[in-house]
Amino acid sequence: MIFTSNPPLSLYIHLPWCERKCPYCDFNSHTADNFDEQRYIKSLIEDLQQDLPLIWGRQISSIFIGGGTPSLFSAEAIQQLLSDLRALLNFNSGIEITMEANPGSADVSRFKGYRDAGVNRLSIGIQSFDDSSLQAIGRIHNGSQSIAAFNKARQAGFDNINLDLMYALPGQSLQQQMADINRAFDCQPEHISLYQLTIEPNTLFHSKLPGNLPDDDLSWDMQQQAQQALSTAGYEQYEISAYAQQNRQSRHNLNYWSFGDYLGIGAGAHGKITLPAEGRVIRRTRIRHPQSYMQHQGIHRISEQRELLAQDLVFEFMLNALRLVEGFDKSLFSQHCGLSTRLLDSAIHQAVELKLLVNSDGHLKPTSHGLQFHNDLQALFLDVDISQKLSIQPEILF
Fold first, then answer.
1. Hey, which end of the chain has fewer CB within 10 Å, N or C?
2. How large is the average pLDDT for residues 324-347?
3. For the chain, which domains are there?
4. Which residues, at least 6 apart from 53, have a Cβ–Cβ distance to it below 8 Å?
5. Distance CA 296, CA 317 (A)
6. What secondary structure, in 3-state letters, does the chain show?
């Protein structure tokens, strides 16, 4: 693999505790029983330090503090965390720092403390404004608390806020779902993430399926009407589940979808780093359980490290980049994977023939059909033939 430059670099920080585990959630989260935030912050910084040799000299363009429920952490703990990070990392001058928060743990003074610490983007897990829907998915807040949480974030000075919404919830009607969308519009957030409820393995909902789930036709109607309403309200869809006002796209998530690099620290965190001098890309995964994560030291916090092979790079790049509504230039594949774009030609041809993809002079863009049947589009790149095509010269890389 031949790399001409480093991809952009982000940092993901996982804070794994929640007040209660939601029955649909398959993230690495744990009930908050007297967790030691200072010990965990110290472990995060030690974890980062052993990864620093991998990214010497590179700037960090964005940070995302996810969970779990990061807003369970005090403002003082987040201040300490970001202060320590500034001492170790080279922050981009316009760095985006996002933190997730739940309405049940919203407080004006705490939000203001996060803002003063350097967090400049907040992502609030509303999911729904409807009390019956929230109860059906096991959330601990209600609709009034959702609106109050948003208002508290504004009072604290946040001018870049994402609201997470879900649809196709148990017992949810089309009218209820659109009422959620309209309540979100009343708040006027800069960004809205809209996800369909999916039943994931290793969740309570998977072992005990909730009743009265909307069928496929109703779920499709919900998606279509919501997308139309979002567009009319000035929210441009730029990724399958992401809608933003002008110039308010999530830079951190765009880096993921463009197959950029990211360090991942914290219990269960994943990272992907390009090593151009070695001609390889590696993934690292941390120990999942927070107590075990804090007990281990240095490299022993890493539960898995693997090198991405050419076939992995093809599929993982397309898995992410094909989520972008406006598509991407094919040359981005070579820049971020170090491989010839010729590897993609056969699968691209198939996708175009199936009307899942448009290829305009090397700019690849999913069609509306391709976005609707995204899994089918991705599958075309799962078994790309990489034989006899890896020994390429730098001058014909692109």
1. C
2. 95
3. 9-255 (3.20.20.70), 310-398 (1.10.10)
4. none
5. 32
6. CCCCCCCCEEEEEEECEECCCCCCCCCCCEECCCCCHHHHHHHHHHHHHCCHHHCCCCEEEEEEEEECCHHHCCHHHHHHHHHHHHHHCEEEEEEEEEEEECHHHCCHHHHHHHHHHCCCEEEEEEECCCHHHHHHCCCCCCHHHHHHHHHHHHHCCCCCEEEEEEECCCCCCHHHHHHHHHHHHHHCCCEEEEEECCCCCCCHHHHCCCCCCCCHHHHHHHHHHHHHHHHHCCCEEEECCEEECCCCCCHHHHHHHCCCEEEEECCCCEEEEEEHHHCEEEEEEECCCHHHHHHCCHHHHEEEEEECCHHHHHHHHHHHHCCECCCEECHHHHHHHCCCHHHHHHHHHHHHHCCCEEEECCEEEECHHHHHCHHHHHHCCCCCCCCCCCCCCHHHCC
Residue with tokens 């996982």: 14
Q: What is the mean pLDDT of residues 230-249?
A: 97
Q: Which one is predicted more confidently, 251 or 104? A: 251
Decide which of 317 and 388 is more confident: 317
Closest CA to 223 of 371, 355, 347: 371
Q: Per residue in 93-124, pLDDT tens? A: 999 999 999 998 778 999 999 999 999 999 99
Q: Which residues contact 382 (CB under 8 A, 6 or more apart)?
A: 315
- Only one residue has tokens 């974890």, namely 47
CA distance 36 to 45: 15
Structure tokens of 226? 């919501």
Q: Which two tokens stand for residue 4?
A: 């001409």
pTM (whole model) above 0.85 = yes
User: Which amino acid is located at 307 in the chain?
Assistant: E
Q: What is the pLDDT of residue 345?
A: 94
Structure tokens, 22? 């939601």
